[in-house]
Amino acid sequence: MATHSGSWHNEQLQNVLTGEVNDWIPDLMPNSDAYLESFRHLINAQIQFYKNFSTKNNRPIWGVKLPEWNSQALSLIQNTHHETKIIYLNRNIKDCVCSAEKMDMIRGQNEIDRFIQIYNQNLDYAKTNLVGENVLHLDYEALVENPAASLTLIAEFTGALNIDPDVMNHKIGNYKENA
Question: What is the pLDDT of residues 32-43, one digit of tens each?
């Protein structure tokens, strides 16, 4: 992720391309505007894929669970695809760390600390920027403790009526057991 302003990156890039810099710049990337435009194209292509897939399978509503899409990416989607509805599912950080460890995504205290830092940044950004009538913030704990109420809320929000409550009986987090 870029740690400096776009103008700084663009200036450094020009200096490198003209041979004026002979330093190692660890976070040097192509022109910031071009990079962001490329990212927008990737997101748009991914969303178009989901739209095509749901249409091909006669499903007017399609949900996607992609934890790797951070809140900034979701904000981009919200701002470029106004009809898209976003459910931001927030889970207790301790449980997230346990799941990440179980999936071998993190090992050791340094990785745990970084994971928590990124989690908190995403949550803060989401609370501030993922707002409006097409965003539903839902707590994982509420979903588990009162699935009927949560599924009703999700159905009303998405328009995906008649969600089978049995969906809550399917557990995903047993990665090592299913390997």
Answer: 788 878 888 888
